[in-house]
Each structure stands twice: as C-alpha cells, then as structure tokens.
Amino acid sequence: MTRCVLLLALLATAACGIPVDTSPEAISVDLGDLGEIEEATGARLAAVSIYLVRDDRLVHVTRDLPSPAQLSDVLESLVSGETDPEDRAGLRSSIPIGTELRGVTEEGGVARIDLSSDFAAVGGRQELLAVAQVVFTATGIEGVDEVVFELEGMPTDVPTSSGALADHPVTATDYASLFEG
Description:
The chain is of the alpha+beta class. It has one domain (about 45-180). Helices cover about 30% and strands about 25% of the residues. It is built from five helices and eight strands. A hairpin with a 2-residue loop joins strand 1 and strand 2. Helix 3 (about 70-80) runs antiparallel to helix 5. The protein starts with a helix and ends in a 15-residue tail after the last strand.
C-alpha cells in the first residue's frame, strides 16, 4: 500500500512539470522608445546638488536628474523627500511631507520660490532646517544667489540661523552655521 501511494505521488509530481521544447524558440521583445531607454540607463542625466539633514546639520547630496536640470526640477526633487538609499544612510528632510512646489521664477540672481502651505507645518529648528535646505539647494544652481519665499503665492518671512525673521531675499550665508562642512 505504501508503495502505491508513493508511486501515485511520483506520477502526480511528474505530470505537473514544465514541458520541454525540442529546440530553442525566438521571442519578440518590444524595447520601446530609444530615448526612454537612454534615460532609464543613465544617459543624458545631470548630477545636481541638494541638501538634506543629518544630526540637525545640512549635508550635501548629489542626485541624477534628466539633463538639462532646471531649478524647478531640482527643487521638485528636494521637496519629494529623501530616497530609500539616503534614508538608509541616516539622511532625512525637514521639509514637511506634502509640501508642493507651486512655482519658481528667477530674475537678476534672485529665485522666487512658491511653496504650498504644507511647508509651514513645522516650526522651530525643523523650520529653520527646511528653509536652509531650500536656500542651499537653490543657490547651488548657477546664477541663483538669493531666495525669496512665498506660501500659496503670498510673500512670507523666513527664519535665519541668527534667530531673526527675514522679510528680504536670503542667501546661503544666512544659514552657513547649519552646514556640516
């Protein structure tokens, strides 16, 4: 009886196998648009600088974005938060989750950055670090020396590392003490 059960189990297992072809068979694979492939493989990318937070200090991080990377592209990458590898490296963003970049204009070395009201969801040290992240990232773009902040299209004051509220364009110098250099 045991031999019959064992034989039936062996036959049932053999019947569930994958059929074997007698010769190789060609398969057609649609590779899509070559431009998408180049982008997916790292071609035509630009290394850009953004700033994240480690131990309450700003740190420089390089990300690859499609080239040419515009200020709005870089800031979109920043407000999207840290990537999984950055998180595993102990980096984080003080920019509140849900913050959206509503608009960016550049004129005469000044970037006017309009963020959603979610940006104001933090206060104290986290607000200071969030502002500094945006300022360091924006002024890292060639031609941008100063930053003016807006929330939902309205100009807003921002804290500086000196403890003052700035109602004028700010620079990386206003946050230099926060940089882990």
